[in-house]
């Protein structure tokens, strides 16, 4: 795991005078502090001399013959040929000597902002009444940045505050880093260290419980096929509340097969796609009708 720290200077905004200059004593720039965490590739025990497979799918082939749980655990616990960018925050205090406390109002990655906006767009019910996403689940929550932001954002919403947010990640180092290195803390946030595949399948008491289910299951720059298949999509649907619960998934690019599988599970007209403006990521939103 690698932690990056850096500073950014930006114009302070309202400090300018009417003639275009800056008011006396006002700083010309403000300084902002950011911190991010990246999971580095790592080999399985005993494989130090062997070349790393180039894709997550090659890991599946390399681990053929093992129990399914072992295969999934291997994929989800950082066995990748490329670094996986997990979480980035803006720190409240620009002091380099201060501990980082994440600013919950700032959600740095654009794709996470698109996921949050997709959930916010569903906050009005079919009759125009407020419909708060009172309970949320995120599979692949990383350090908890999206959860931290949405909990804070909902507290100022007319629809009301989110009562419960469960963030699931298979990497215990990420969960710990969110709390100790990135300062992502919130009393309403529940963290679970678990495989997303197993969590979705083995928590029947959670079925139909969530207004919004977020899915961000990257390994390196890709989403393994096991998380794009019909069986997993059906599990996601069962977690969402009937009659309006949503599943919001982040993909590296448009995927016609994934969209078709979502339409088969949720129905025609229940699936929308949003492309981010920077990069190729696509946010797929599925709304449960039954």
Automatic annotation (TrEMBL):
<feature type="compositionally biased region" description="Basic and acidic residues">
    <location>
        <begin position="29"/>
        <end position="46"/>
    </location>
</feature>
<protein>
    <recommendedName>
        <fullName>Methyltransferase type 11 domain-containing protein</fullName>
    </recommendedName>
</protein>
<dbReference type="InterPro" id="IPR029063">
    <property type="entry name" value="SAM-dependent_MTases_sf"/>
</dbReference>
<feature type="compositionally biased region" description="Polar residues">
    <location>
        <begin position="1"/>
        <end position="10"/>
    </location>
</feature>
<feature type="region of interest" description="Disordered">
    <location>
        <begin position="1"/>
        <end position="59"/>
    </location>
</feature>
